[in-house]
Amino acid sequence: MNTLLTDLPGVLLLETDRRSDERGGFARWFCESDLAAALQGATIRQINHSHTVQRGSVRGMHFQYAPHAEKKIIRCLSGKIFDVVVDLRKDSATFLAWRGFELEAGDDRALLIPEGCAHGFQTLSNEVQMLYLHTAFYTPAAEGAVRFDDPRIAIDWPLPPQNLSERDLLHPFLSSDFSGISL
Ligand SMILES: Cc1cn([C@H]2C[C@H](O)[C@@H](COP(=O)(O)OP(=O)(O)O[C@H]3O[C@@H](C)C(=O)[C@@H](O)[C@H]3O)O2)c(=O)[nH]c1=O
């Protein structure tokens, strides 16, 4: 597994070699040992799947507060997405910076998102399936979110955002004195 740094500290692109033969292919998508340095002692607690029907749909931008903060490993199983990470970490050199990464089925790429970063995505095709590996249990009381259209973050979505959940439309904008979350 190749672990590629991005310019957001702790956000990693994970690339896997695929062995192909006449039957098709085989790739190792998760190895606790290969990812030991990236996981920093955390273990995978939950594996989740989502299905999004329509191109242009946006889900996000979600995170969990400490002590339930989590790393997530995100992979696209079907279709194509624009995956977005926002750095919300207090005192981070890249505080409030966002980055977008295209992930698509068959690319054998995943994105590792560290604690303190919000995550969301926009579907670039119909019929998108996503796989999530989480290092913390889903804890509704610890859920946090920022709006997909927060002006302090100004994410440049590739398509007009649509099909947001009621919950995602209710997230408040960041206050002008928001200075980040502590882990
Ligand atoms: C996230 C989550 C939701 N749920 C429930 C709550 C709700 O009834 C239903 C759908 O939840 P949501 O609307 O929050 O689903 P969704 O908007 O797809 O939430 C996901 O968004 C992306 C961007 C992420 O990064 C994920 O970690 C997750 O937060 O599933 C769980 O049972 N376990 C979970 O881990």
TrEMBL record:
Pfam families: dTDP_sugar_isom
Signal peptide residues on this chain, from the entry's feature table: none
Protein EC: 5.1.3.13
Cited SUPFAM superfamilies: RmlC-like cupins
Enzyme class name: isomerase
Catalytic activity: dTDP-4-dehydro-6-deoxy-alpha-D-glucose = dTDP-4-dehydro-beta-L-rhamnose
Entry function: Catalyzes the epimerization of the C3' and C5'positions of dTDP-6-deoxy-D-xylo-4-hexulose, forming dTDP-6-deoxy-L-lyxo-4-hexulose.
Name of the protein in its database record: dTDP-4-dehydrorhamnose 3,5-epimerase
